[in-house]
Design goal:
This protein is of the alpha+beta class. The protein has one domain: 2-Layer Sandwich (Alpha-Beta Plaits), CATH 3.30.70. It has a 4-stranded antiparallel sheet, with helices on one face. The chain is globular, with a radius of gyration of 10 Å.
Length: about 70
């Protein structure tokens, strides 16, 4: 299952690295794609609640988007 979050306060390369690192630690082996220009983080699998908590712990405010 694919999960996408809008992370409006992710605005630079450092933010992108921090979010990726947090997700890698919380959900090892789960593929993560970041679209910095659109402020979106997409996971291919993994637990959405764990991912959201990891992004929040990294200092960002994710909003889960409905996925098609």
């Amino acid at each position: 299952m694919t999960t996408t979050f809008l992370v409006p306060d992710m605005s630079c390369g450092h933010c992108e690295k921090a979010v990726k690192a947090a997700l890698s630690e919380a959900l090892p082996g789960v593929p993560v794609a970041v679209d910095l220009a659109e402020h979106r983080v997409t996971l291919d699998g993994g637990n959405a609640a764990v991912a959201e908590a990891a992004i929040r712990e990294a200092g960002y405010t994710p909003e889960k988007l409905a996925n098609a």
